[in-house]
Amino acid sequence: MPRFKQKSYYIGNVFTGNFFKSELFCRKNGMNLVTINSKEESDFLQKILTEKGDDIENFWISATRFLDVNITNECTKLPIPSTNDWIWFTTGERITYFNWHIGEPNNIYHHGELCVDLKKDNKIWKWVDKTCWDKINFICEYTWTKEDIQGNSKESSQYLTDIY
Ligand SMILES: [Ca+2]
Description:
Layout: E1 3-4, E2 7-17, H1 19-28, E3 32-33, H2 39-52, E4 58-65, E5 86-88, E6 115-121, E7 124-130, E8 136-143, H3 146-150, H4 153-163
Parallel strand pairs: 4-8
Antiparallel strand pairs: 1-2, 2-8, 3-8, 4-5, 4-6, 6-7
C-alpha cells in the first residue's frame, strides 16, 4: 500500500458502499476511513489516485458535518459544534484543513449532505459534501505504530527519526 509519513492508504475499489459500510469495512481490516490533514497529504493522495488511473471518480473520506444543534456538552461545559463545523468521523477531531471544490459544501439536500466525497473533476480531486447513504468507493488509512516500525528493522531507523 502507498505510504506517506506514518500512514498507508488502501484504495477501496472492490465495492461501493454507503459512508458507514465503508468505515465498517476499513475497521474490520484494522484501518479507518482516511483523514486528510494537510496539503502535503492531499497532494500525495492526488498523486496515487492519478497514477492508479482507473475510472473511479468518488471516494468516501472520514469527514462529516456535525449535527445542526446549538447546545452545551453537560459534562465538559464546552459548546457542541454548530452545523458549520466539520469533524473527522473516526477521531472526533475538528477538521482544520479543507480542500473543497468550488461551490462546495452546498448541502444541496438541506441538512442532508453530511458526509464528504473526494471527487474527481477535470483531473483534480477535491471535496464535495454528499448524502451519506450514496454508494461510492472509499479510501482507508492505516496508521503505523511505533511497534510496527520497530518490528520492521530494515526501514525502521530512518523512519523512526522522521516520525518520533
Ligand atoms: Ca454537495
